[in-house]
Amino acid sequence: MNLQLAEDGRLRHLLTLDGLPRAIITQILDTAESFMDVGEREVKKVPLLRGKSIFNLFFEPSTRTRTTFEIAAKRLSADVVNLNIATSSQTKGEAILDTVDNLAAMHADMFIVRHAQSGAAHFIARHVAPHISVVNAGDGRHAHPTQGLLDMFTIRRYKGEFHNLTVAIVGDVLHSRVARSQIHALTTLGVPEVRVIGPKTLLPAGVEQMGVRAFHDMEAGLAGCDVVIMLRLQNERMKGARLPSAQEYFKFFGLTPEKLALAKPDAIVMHPGPMNRGVEIASEVADGPQSVILPQVTYGIAVRMAVMAMLAGGATA
Ligand code: CP
């Protein structure tokens, strides 16, 4: 059974980009494009989700994802509740499904879920009533589908097409849910060359089976790239030392202006955030002319509006 799609093929939940049809990904990107101008209007609102209640359930810290989901839901005129997990009855031992059932009893229509455990959003999606949708806002090292989608939206905005691109994802791929979602989306959208670059200890064994080429040095890996995506070292998910030191990591895999010069002159630099300057990226690059890191954040609002509008059954600005 495909948990994400209804019998008529429409989006029912958004849990992963693995196996999500190209037509649906493209529909999300096109719908997001139609929402872009809402953010430029004096009254930044459309009535598509009026009367709907959306609950942000973030069991793990977040700056970008939580706030852009909230802004997106408000721009769609939904009522938004941010459950503060630290002061909720979760701290008294309430089971996650009991929390979900109680919020469903308050007539929730959608749950946006971030959790440190891979599979948490799937677990909730299997449990909720048919009228409730679940969006995975990042689960463990498994998936972060709306980040992957906003990254595709960013690439399409700057590069136009996917079929002629070389894209490099650099750094801690092993622990990165973002990298997994990006790889699924890039390969589904027909990017012919997806590369992962990192030390052996930070690339998953057999990563080539995901349809990517693996590189262990920046010189070869960045040559001829159109898009360079930097990843944070996910220290919170590492078990034991996988690197000699942050300084040594920066020396070999940190993106400096000199290393960026190995890519195409018009290459764009992306990062999902949060960034660790001087560890995976130099400030001159993060704040430089090829960086599209802050536009990624802005585009995340339109992409999350598109996802929520499609889940709720309406999809135009
Ligand atoms: N990219 C991302 O997920 O950032 P946050 O952890 O701040 O949401």
Overall geometry: globular
Largest sheet: 5 strands, parallel
Question: What is the strand content?
Answer: 5-15%
Total count of domains: 2
Number of contiguous helices = 11
Structural class: alpha/beta
CATH level 1 name of the largest domain: Alpha Beta
The CATH topology label of the largest domain is Rossmann fold
Using the CA coordinates, give the radius of gyration.
19 Å
CATH superfamily of the largest domain: Aspartate/ornithine carbamoyltransferase
Q: Name the helix and strand elements from N-terminus to C-terminus, one letter apiece.
A: HEHEHEHEHEHEEHEHHEHH
Average pLDDT number: 95
Helix content: 25-40%
Number of β-strand runs: 9
Query: Spans with pLDDT under 50 lasting ≥5 residues?
Result: none
Spatial strand order of the main sheet: 7-6-5-8-9
End-to-end Cα distance, whole Å, is: 32 Å
Bound small molecules, by name, code or SMILES, are: phosphoric acid mono(formamide)ester
Provide the CATH architecture of the largest domain.
3-Layer(aba) Sandwich
